[in-house]
């Protein structure tokens, strides 16, 4: 896509003024693994420079989840023991990172803290789980993790846990009774419920049982790319009706059915489609750019015998790193989006979701 100098100038201004939220990244696992090997100030030295270059204010990052972030790959059984231990260790790692880099980094649990991070030039981390495995079969642990700063939880990460089935189980099972109880407790505490990676039945159970906005942190339009991690128009309508937000995913396998590198236009087509179906108030950025790990290590996570597991670790060349996020702002403006819409996509819609969920929890007992 050709972008004029005038548009790039406007994009630089809009981007600098906006609070930019990456609704799903993969930084905390890298931090935890490197700290376990003895490194310190991993965020400040390895990740924050790129985030600052990209104008990213907030990363919503899975500090833990169904996958064993602190052990060797490959893994297969996502009901294996020790996910609770891994989660506590990773949370400790991130809190220590903040203690070691207080001028560069903060953990955000309120929207006001995010605004403070923008004002002070810091990067804010919203601690998340990608899969609720760490709570095991004890829903009351959600309160413990809330106190430790966790503000967004995906119900599953592709496979099955105590709460629900993921997209790779091949089942039509929805939320378990424990899963329904967990959704209600997340609503009460003010934790965002993330439906990315849930199977379709689980998605509709969350719609039925959640009284708060529903979030898909990193998913695209299934009408444009058939990957089962993407969402149908009916699902997109349901998220919008709840007041929720979908973060547009940059990974090639979720952008295009072509077996080649995705283009920026194909990525932008998903933004167009989500706005067409949901409206401009329900679209954000969920890039999931895995620039922090060797590609070969990530490939070990996926069983090639499972057709839904096929992933291509490629991204649009203009958005293959979070340091390139400003390219999206220029592309949005060049595509004809007004500045107010661009600000919503960059982070405004996510801030509204956070404010609605975090700051107005449903405290009914």
Polypeptide structure, described:
It is a single chain. The protein is an alpha/beta fold. It has a single domain, classed as TIM Barrel (Alpha-Beta Barrel). It is 42% helix and 11% strand. Strands 1, 2, 3, 4, 5, 6, 7, 8 and 9 form a 9-stranded parallel beta sheet that branches. Helix 9 (233-242) links the parallel strand 7 (214-216) and strand 8. Helix 2 (28-36) crosses helix 4. The radius of gyration is 19 Å and the shape is globular. The N and C termini lie far apart (53 Å).
Key structural traits:
365 residues, alpha/beta, TIM Barrel, 9 strands, 42% helix
How far apart the termini lie comes to: 53 Å
Number of helices, where a helix is a run of at least 4 consecutive DSSP H or I residues: 14
**Residue share in β-strands:** 5-15%
Shape: globular
Query: How many strands, what sense, and barrel or not for the largest sheet?
Result: 9 strands, parallel
Structural class: alpha/beta
> What order do the helices and strands follow?
HEHHEHEHEHEHEHEHEHHEHHH
CATH topology: TIM Barrel
Number of strands: 9
CATH C-level: Alpha Beta
CATH architecture type: Alpha-Beta Barrel
User: What's the helical proportion of residues?
Assistant: 40-55%
Overall domain count? 1
Q: Would you identify the CATH H-level superfamily?
A: Metal-dependent hydrolases
């Amino acid at each position: 896509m050709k972008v004029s100098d005038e548009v790039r100038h406007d994009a630089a201004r809009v981007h600098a003024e906006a609070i930019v939220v990456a609704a799903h990244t993969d930084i905390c696992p890298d931090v935890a693994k490197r700290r376990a090997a003895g490194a310190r100030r991993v965020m400040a030295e390895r990740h924050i420079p790129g985030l600052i270059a990209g104008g990213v204010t907030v990363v919503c990052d899975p500090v833990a989840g169904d996958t064993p972030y602190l052990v060797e790959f490959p893994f297969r059984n996502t009901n294996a023991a020790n996910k609770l231990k891994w989660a506590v260790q990773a949370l400790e790692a991130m809190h220590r990172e903040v203690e070691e880099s207080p001028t560069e980094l903060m953990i955000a649990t309120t929207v006001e803290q995010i605004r403070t991070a923008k004002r002070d030039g810091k990067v804010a981390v919203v601690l998340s789980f990608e899969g609720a495995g760490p709570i095991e079969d004890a829903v009351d642990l959600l309160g413990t993790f809330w106190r430790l700063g966790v503000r967004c939880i995906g119900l599953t990460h592709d496979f099955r846990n105590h709460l629900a089935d993921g997209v790779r189980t091949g089942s039509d099972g929805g939320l378990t009774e424990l899963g329904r109880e967990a959704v209600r407790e997340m609503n009460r505490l003010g934790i965002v419920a993330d439906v990315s990676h849930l199977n379709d039945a689980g998605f509709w159970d969350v719609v039925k049982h959640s009284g708060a906005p529903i979030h898909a942190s990193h998913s695209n339009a299934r009408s444009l790319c058939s990957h089962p991690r993407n969402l149908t128009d009916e699902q997109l309508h349901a998220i919008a009706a709840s007041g929720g937000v979908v973060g547009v995913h940059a990974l090639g396998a979720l952008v295009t059915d072509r077996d080649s590198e995705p283009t920026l236009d194909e990525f932008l087509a998903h933004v167009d489609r989500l706005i067409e179906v949901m409206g401009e108030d329900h679209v954000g950025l969920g890039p999931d750019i895995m620039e922090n790990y060797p590609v070969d290590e990530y490939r070990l996570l996926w069983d090639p015998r499972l057709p839904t597991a096929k992933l291509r670790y490629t991204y649009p060349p203009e958005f293959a790193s979070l340091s390139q996020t400003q390219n999206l702002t220029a592309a949005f403006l060049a595509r004809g989006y007004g500045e107010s819409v661009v600000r919503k996509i960059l982070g405004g819609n996510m801030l509204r979701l956070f404010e609605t969920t975090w700051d107005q929890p449903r405290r009914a007992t």
